[in-house]
């Protein structure tokens, strides 16, 4: 472990096939943390088993992190409460509900052994066509994003969960996805400060534990390097001007915004020199990660200045772990209040056509799923629809080839305007179906012909029950 302490500065992913090797190599290569994805586990029981094994294998307790933002951005889909997501909380615009949501979901993650959440998203979604943020944002108002973000940070802190706000200095005005290309945001310095950086200022004052950098080029801040690799943005702006003293984490370095230009080792070195303290390393094999640690260690033996700088990062990480990882939360929260929040976030987005009484009719349900949505989401939603309809005694079927039915199209999408789904919807809109939008409410704007639209923020039973109740209530009022 002493030879490869630099591994503590890396937060890595791993495949199911690599899990045994990771545990076996843990003492020699003590990675600072692991990032769990749905490829590792999708149920609460699976996650708990993995976290226990990781804690037993590593000589230094690891950060165990997850992207469990809510809405359609989750890794665990079974056995835990799913947050309605930022878009839904932004619509409610309730500081109390946002704080409660973070505390309630954070407590459940903590019970499973997860100790770090890569949330909240503090990006201000000023670009409606943003392909990657969208419903992950609280909205297009910097003030709203800042206040609700601060509330969620308070909630996560009450749950004793390390929270990492993202993506500094802001990903909300991008028309491209940094997983695929390097986005460029050409805002003025004043615009960046007033719109994008402001929520992070508020988060820093609230004591957010960590901040994740964005792989985006901001010419007004640095004309040549994306934020993750930019000393001007990380060292000068975030650490010096904003006085952030918490942990600075990179977004995943395998994303094309970085990897299409820089090799993994070059990206690692540039990030550290920019002021990043912990790096997310995904998308390459465990063997390749180990080789990078070995190469990095050799470089540190030759460069005492770099070694000294990175060792300070190592010390900082150990202090955070000692302070945060083994704190047990003491609060208890009401499940009834949680159910009320789920019900409140399931709403009519559009209600322009009277809904005739469908008494005696079958609800005929069809799914349209964007290609980026895991199949498990649709499967879970289908099970919940069956469960809720049985409870409420509503006859349902699946498909569109039946007569004398009330037709419902369930659209599952994170994207604001998925072309294939819009084209498919055009073929059925003449039948005046009810459109259920699960995921991104901005999609509503791209189907103006659909006069009956309901927003279902996340696949949770209480939310699905509320969806049916909204339809029943509207149907009865139309008679």
CATH first level of the largest domain = Alpha Beta
How would you classify the quaternary structure? single chain
How does CATH name the architecture of the largest domain? Alpha-Beta Barrel
How many domains?
A: 2
Which range best describes the helical content: under 10%, 10-25%, 25-40%, 40-55%, 55-70% or over 70%? 40-55%
Mass-distribution shape:
globular
Distance between the termini: 73 Å
Low-confidence residue ranges:
none
Estimate the strand proportion: 5-15%
For the largest beta-sheet, the strand count, sense and barrel status come to:
8 strands, parallel, barrel
Mean pLDDT metric = 93
The count of β-strands is 14
What does this structure look like?
The protein is an alpha/beta fold and 479 residues long. The chain folds into 2 domains: 2-324, Glycoside hydrolase, family 3, N-terminal domain (TIM Barrel, Alpha-Beta Barrel); 346-477, 3-Layer(aba) Sandwich (Rossmann fold). 41% of the residues lie in helices and 15% in strands. The chain contains 15 helices and 14 strands. The protein has helices at 19-25, 44-57, 86-92, 95-111, 142-158, 189-206, 231-241, 256-259, 264-274, 286-302, 304-324, 335-344, 375-392, 419-426, 461-477; strands at 10-12, 33-36, 63-66, 116-117, 162-168, 210-213, 247-252, 278-281, 347-351, 362-369, 396-398, 405-413, 434-439, 452-456. The strands form 2 sheets. The protein has an 8-stranded parallel barrel, surrounded by 4 helices. Strands 9-14-13-12-10-11 form a 6-stranded mixed sheet, with helices on both faces. Helix 5 links the parallel strand 4 (116-117) and strand 5 (162-168). Helix 12 (335-344) packs across helix 15 (461-477). The radius of gyration is 23 Å and the shape is globular. 49% of the residues are buried. The model has no long low-confidence stretch (mean pLDDT 93).
């Amino acid at each position: 472990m002493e030879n490869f302490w630099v591994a503590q500065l890396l937060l890595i992913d791993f495949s199911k096939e690599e899990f045994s090797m990771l545990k076996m190599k843990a003492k020699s290569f003590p990675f600072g943390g692991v990032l769990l994805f749905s490829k590792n586990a999708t149920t609460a029981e699976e996650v708990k088993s993995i976290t226990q094994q990781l804690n037993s294998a590593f000589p230094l307790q690891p950060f165990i992190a997850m992207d469990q933002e809510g809405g359609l951005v989750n890794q665990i889909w079974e056995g835990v409460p799913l947050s309605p997501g930022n878009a839904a909380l932004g619509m409610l615009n309730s500081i109390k509900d946002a704080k409660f949501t973070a505390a309630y979901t954070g407590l459940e993650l903590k019970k499973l052994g997860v100790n770090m959440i890569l949330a909240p998203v503090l990006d201000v979604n000023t670009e409606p066509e943003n392909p990657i943020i969208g419903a992950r944002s609280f909205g297009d108002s910097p003030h709203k994003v800042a206040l609700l973000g601060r509330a969620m940070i308070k909630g996560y802190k009450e749950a004793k969960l390390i929270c990492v706000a993202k993506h500094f200095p802001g990903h909300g005005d991008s028309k491209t996805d940094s997983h695929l290309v390097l986005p460029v945001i050409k805002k003025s310095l004043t615009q960046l400060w007033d719109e994008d950086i402001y929520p992070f200022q508020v988060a820093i004052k609230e004591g957010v534990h960590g901040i994740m950098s964005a792989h985006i080029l901001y010419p007004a801040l640095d004309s040549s390097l994306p934020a993750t690799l930019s000393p001007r943005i990380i060292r000068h702006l975030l650490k010096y001007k904003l006085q952030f003293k918490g942990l600075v984490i990179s977004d995943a370095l395998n994303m094309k915004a970085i990897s299409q230009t820089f090799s993994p080792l070059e990206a690692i070195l540039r990030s550290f020199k920019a002021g990043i303290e912990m790096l997310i390393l995904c998308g390459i094999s465990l063997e390749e990660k180990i080789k990078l640690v070995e190469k990095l260690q050799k470089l540190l033996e030759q460069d005492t200045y770099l070694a000294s700088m990175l060792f300070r990062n190592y010390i900082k990480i150990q202090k955070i772990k000692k302070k945060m990882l083994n704190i047990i939360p003491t609060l208890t929260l009401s499940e009834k209040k949680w159910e009320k929040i789920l019900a409140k976030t399931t709403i009519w987005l559009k209600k322009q056509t009277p809904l005739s009484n469908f008494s005696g009719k079958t609800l005929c349900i069809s799914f349209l799923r964007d290609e980026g949505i895991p199949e498990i989401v649709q499967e879970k939603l289908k099970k919940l629809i069956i469960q809720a309809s049985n409870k409420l005694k509503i006859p349902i079927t699946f498909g569109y080839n039946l007569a004398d039915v009330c037709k419902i199209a369930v659209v599952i999408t994170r994207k604001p305007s998925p072309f294939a789904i819009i084209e498919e919807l055009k073929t059925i809109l003449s039948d005046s179906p009810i459109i259920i939008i699960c995921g991104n409410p901005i999609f509503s704007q791209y189907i103006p012909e659909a006069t009956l639209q309901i927003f279902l923020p996340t696949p949770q039973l209480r939310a699905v029950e509320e969806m049916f109740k909204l339809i029943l209530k509207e149907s009865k009022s139309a008679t």
